[in-house]
Amino acid sequence: MIYWKHDAVAVVPLSLQLPTGNDSRTGFRVFSYRGSHINVRVSINGKDFKAALNTASPVSAMSTDTAKFIFGITADSPGAVPLDSPDGKPEHRPFRYTFQTMTFDTVTVTNPKFVVYPNLTGSRDPNNSERTDNRARKVDDSFGGGISVGMDVLRKLHLYVAYGENKIYITPASAPQSASATPASGPAAPAQ
């Protein structure tokens, strides 16, 4: 239930990041741990993804693999802004890129900025441990490479997490229009 005034509302199913997958045969009970992220479906420039809502990060982020193979964007693309490397190595250098839209069901955020970073998970440990339930996969195969929505986008939204329903209700953070200025029908107002 949304208790604030709103023009548009997105009702998005959520899932929690789990320590073991639902299809795991490890014998461990599936549970949510304290540091889990809420994962939701988002659309970035019309491409659908599962993204983690990360209130601990000031910026939204995605891996260079996602940017390159899904959007055709690299550090040399027009609009890419190079950033400083955290460790001084040029191959670890991220860049910033502004997409046109990010949509949560019916609520759209325009011009979301993403830090695009190299996926270095396992790069120093190519012989990392194998999972006990699936010897074809490594322990850290599910880490890195994902999309996270940081506070730069989340502060443009009002969120209500209904864990009992496994849903998150999302509205633009901007004040709703007055009744006289609201069109009779039309698309949801984008969050700026």
Helix-strand pattern, N to C? Answer: EEEEHEEEEEEHEE
* Number of strand elements: 12
* Assembly type: single chain
Helical fraction? under 10%
What are the low-pLDDT stretches, counting only 5+ consecutive residues below 50? 139-144, 179-187
Q: Give the second-level CATH assignment, the architecture of the domain at 10-20 and 34-121 and 140-172.
A: Beta Barrel
CATH homologous superfamily annotation of the domain at 10-20 and 34-121 and 140-172: Acid Proteases
Morphology: elongated
Strand content: 25-35%
Cα-atom radius of gyration? 19 Å
Describe what this molecule looks like in 3D:
- The protein is built from two helices and twelve strands.
- With 192 residues, it is mainly β.
- It has a domain of 132 residues: Beta Barrel (Cathepsin D, subunit A, domain 1), CATH 2.40.70.10.
- The strands form two sheets. Strands 1, 2, 3, 7, 8, 10, 11 and 12 form an eight-stranded mixed sheet that branches.
- A hairpin with a 4-residue loop joins strand 11 and strand 12.
- The longest helix is centred in the middle third of the chain and has 8 residues.
- It starts with 9 loop residues before the first strand and ends in a 20-residue tail after the last strand.
